[in-house]
Amino acid sequence: MTHAELLEMARNNLTRFAASPSPADVLRQTIEAHEIVFAIFPDTSERGWDIHMIKGKPLVPGASDDELARRATTAVPCADLTEALELERAFGDGKPVVQ
User: DSSP states of 34-85 as a string?
Assistant: First the structure.
């Protein structure tokens, strides 16, 4: 998965969230439906954004690119790293699902 692909996923998810009458529910459903979830948020780097993995960390160490490619993966937009960390606390590995 390239950074460009993750950014495109986040943009597509943002469109879906914005079009929903219940964006928080769509966000929760999106995270629950994927094994690996990245947060994309703006930063001051040359690229203009950064990534934080909010779900799927135990799946990555030792996995081949082929194994990771078979995992359901997505990216969600966040305002900043603080929001990404909040999503990780709420929906990350080993955490109870927030309803």
Answer: -SEEEEEEE-SSSSSEEEEEEE-GGGSTT--HHHHHTS-EEEEE-SSHHHHH
